[in-house]
Amino acid sequence: MWRFGVLVTIVGCSERVDVAGPTWDDDGTLPVTVAADTAAEAPDYGACGPTHLVDLRIVGVAIGSDAAPLAGAVARLETRDWGPVTVHGAGTTVDDGSFDFLALDVPIVEGCWAIGPQFYVVVEEGALYGEDGANPEVVRAWLDGTYVADLSDPPVVAAQR
């Protein structure tokens, strides 16, 4: 119960992040780098396997509770674990509610898919707020080598706070 209380507090205090769109390579692909598996460069998650810091492309769709596309909202990828919330990247939704942004230094901890970093895509626009867990999509993007986490289906639903 205590952990839930801390999570609610962290979510309620997260600040809005405005970030310019990502910079793609000339061929339309995302520039991807993988950091070395060292404690100096990546958080230490204890008895789990090596930690990789990767850059991912985050794509998805945001809608309001009325199922209408949510344009002009800020979408971001957060890591929530035992420390403060980390925002890895953010972008703005376009007219059809879609978003596409670069998330930097996303920690992938081998062998700790359920207890290591917890990933969330958060969407905010004025009084509207929505979030979805993104662990399966983030881990899959790393495992399959595409480095693209697709959160389009189902869309992130934002409702009045």
Please characterize this protein's 3D structure.
Mean pLDDT is 78; it is low at 1-24 and 28-40. Helix content is 13%, strand content 42%. Strands 3-2-5-6-7-1-4 form a seven-stranded mixed sheet. A hairpin with a 2-residue loop joins strand 5 and strand 6 (128-133). By secondary structure, the chain is mainly β.
- Average pLDDT confidence is 78
* Adjacency order of strands in the biggest sheet: 3-2-5-6-7-1-4
* Unreliable stretches: 1-24, 28-40
Give the topology string: H per helix, E per strand: HEEEEEEHE
% residues in beta strands? 35-45%
End-to-end C-alpha gap: 22 Å
Features:
161 residues; mainly beta
Produce a short descriptive summary.
The chain is mostly beta strands.
Task: Detail the topology: elements first, then pairings.
Layout: H1 2-13, E1 51-64, E2 74-80, E3 86-92, E4 98-109, E5 118-125, E6 128-133, H2 135-143, E7 148-160
Parallel strand pairs: 1-7
Antiparallel strand pairs: 1-4, 2-3, 2-5, 5-6, 6-7
